[in-house]
Every structure is written in structure tokens, then in C-alpha cells.
């Protein structure tokens, strides 16, 4: 019984880790805000790779949360990461008319399911 309790307690830090990152980028004429909600990506890879975009000529701010904030105009659920079995949900904020481009990309390239709240 003590071993089981010790195992459960040792897993608590894993449960407390942020599983979403909000990426806000600003360029000359473009401002984009997305949130990536982790589904199956290993935590260190998600934090150190997926949440660290390299966008030339843009100011990028990244913050972490347990889940994506409300207010997205669309969500690409179960988006597959190209070339891997990893999945994430991508929440889009800002200009709702962008959905006409994002929905086909979600469904065709990421093999996800587009949802509009």
C-alpha cells in the first residue's frame, strides 16, 4: 500500500505541468494568437519544441497554461503533427474570417476536425 501511495505522489508533478501554450506573434502587418493544447506529445518535446516557434521578423510571446483560454473562433481538434503520431488541439483567436483558410488546412493537412464554438 505504501508503494502505491508513493507512486501516486511521485506522479503529482506530472499532472501539474502546463499542457497548453499560447503563442502570440506580431509582425509588420500581421498579428496572430493561437493556443496549442497538448494531446499526445511528450511534455518536454511539447514545451521545448512545439511551443517555441521560430518566426523570422516577428515578435513572439509564449505563455503556458493548463488549458487554452476561452474565446477562440475555431479549434482544430486532434490535429496530427506532420510526420509523427502526435496530436494536439489548435485554438485560433482574432480574425474569425480566417476560418475559411484554416478549416481546410485543419481537415486536409492536419487530418483534424474543425469546430467553431
Please characterize this protein's 3D structure:
The protein contains three helices and six strands; from the N terminus they run H-E-E-H-E-E-E-H-E. The radius of gyration is 16 Å and the shape is globular. The longest helix is centred in the first third of the chain and has 15 residues, at 2-16. It is of the alpha+beta class. It has one domain (17-115). Strand 1 (20-26) and strand 2 (31-38) form a beta hairpin. A six-stranded antiparallel sheet has the order 3-1-2-5-4-6.
Number of domains: 1
Q: What summary fits the major beta sheet? A: 6 strands, antiparallel
Average pLDDT confidence is 85
User: Element order, helices and strands?
Assistant: HEEHEEEHE
Beta-strand fraction estimate: 25-35%
Strand segment count: 6
N-end to C-end Cα span: 45 Å
Question: Rg, please?
Answer: 16 Å
Helix content: 25-40%
How many DSSP helices? Answer: 3
Name the strands of the widest sheet in spatial order: 3-1-2-5-4-6
Query: What overall geometry do the principal axes of the alpha carbons give?
Result: globular
Low-confidence stretches: 1-16
Derived structural class: alpha+beta
Amino acid at each position: 500500500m505504501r508503494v502505491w501511495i508513493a507512486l501516486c505522489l511521485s506522479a503529482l508533478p506530472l499532472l501539474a505541468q502546463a499542457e497548453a501554450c499560447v503563442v502570440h506573434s506580431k509582425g509588420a502587418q500581421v498579428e496572430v494568437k493561437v493556443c496549442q493544447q497538448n494531446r499526445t506529445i511528450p511534455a518536454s518535446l511539447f514545451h521545448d519544441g512545439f511551443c517555441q516557434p521560430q518566426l523570422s521578423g516577428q515578435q513572439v510571446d509564449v505563455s503556458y497554461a493548463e488549458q487554452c483560454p476561452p474565446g477562440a473562433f475555431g479549434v482544430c481538434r486532434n490535429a496530427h503533427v506532420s510526420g509523427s503520431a502526435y496530436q494536439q488541439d489548435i485554438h485560433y483567436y482574432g480574425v474569425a474570417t480566417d476560418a475559411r483558410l484554416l478549416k481546410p488546412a485543419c481537415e486536409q493537412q492536419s487530418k483534424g476536425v474543425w469546430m467553431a464554438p
